[in-house]
Design brief:
single chain, mainly alpha, Arc Repressor Mutant, subunit A, 2 domains, 7 helices, elongated
């Protein structure tokens, strides 16, 4: 094996840091570390990579790499690339980042916001009434129920505003 130059060692070190950072970032957004790491590896690849190369490059199993690639493909973040030789599938990132956001990330965000809205609606409906009365079959609510209900209503209002903005096309005008 030929010795590596200081430049190539620095590049390999930075590449590893970039892949790890992408994993931490994706994890922070609730997408999972492997999603970020796999996407970063594909960004840095000079050519499309096959499943074996991705698994080896990330030190994960082929099954884990396959699941991660399916998630990335569903979000339109990667594409399967036809290669004439052999039966392996090769993958590369979708290079049109505006398309990635428009067709992959925004629909995913809308779906998650809609799900959060359903949960918030259920919570607001089931939260204790802020005031009890003698004619009510419900016992008097705890003193903090007014604050809890208000926080839930504020969260629901924000969720509705975000959905409105994302559905309005305003976000798409910048892409």
């Amino acid at each position: 094996m030929p010795p590596t130059s200081p430049t190539s060692r620095a590049w390999l070190r930075q590449k590893k840091r970039f892949i790890l950072a992408a994993g931490h970032t994706a994890h922070g957004f609730g997408l999972g570390r492997q999603v970020g790491r796999c996407y970063a590896l594909l960004i840095l690849a000079a050519s499309p990579l096959c499943l074996d190369e991705i698994a080896l490059g990330l030190s994960i199993s082929k099954a884990s790499a396959s699941i991660t690639l399916r998630r990335l493909a569903a979000w339109k973040l990667v594409q399967r690339v036809p290669v004439e030789e052999g039966r392996r599938d090769y993958y590369r990132i979708e290079g049109n980042f505006a398309r990635v956001i428009r067709e992959g990330l925004l629909p995913m965000a809308l779906s998650k916001l809609a799900s959060a809205g359903v949960m918030l609606d259920d919570m607001v409906r089931s939260a204790p009434s802020p005031v009890g009365n003698a004619n009510s079959a419900r016992p008097e609510s705890p003193p903090d129920s007014v604050e809890v209900r208000q926080l839930l209503l504020e969260a629901k209002s924000l969720q509705e505003k975000l959905i409105f903005i994302l559905n309005s096309g305003l976000a798409y005008r910048f892409l």
